[in-house]
Amino acid sequence: MNNQANYKLTQAYEFIKKGDFSSTNRLLEDALEIELENEEVLFALKCRNYWGDVVEKASFLSMPFERGEHLIAHWKYFLKNVIENSDQVFEQTMYSIRKGIFTLALENYKQLLGDRHPLHKAEA
Q: Where are the alpha helices (DSSP H) in 18-90?
């Protein structure tokens, strides 16, 4: 892989690990322009597109528990329907996405711990 494309991909992975999928668009597109047929960049872009939509839709849910559950449910769907149907899976991409999604879910669940309502604490 070209050093410049690899650098952009590595930067994108750092944003993804933090659950920031919106900041990765330009980085992945730049990496793809540098190496049009790079399978890892194509896979990362495919995954980013899926998760960008999921995270955006989760932000519209009103309750933190619902947002966390939404992310976990989509993780299961992602593994079963997206990953199983992919020709090639790249571990660094999967690790970054796994860390980002579960970090976001955990942040939502943590919000419930400070809630005074006993039912919300029990959900957490």
A: 25-34, 39-59, 64-77
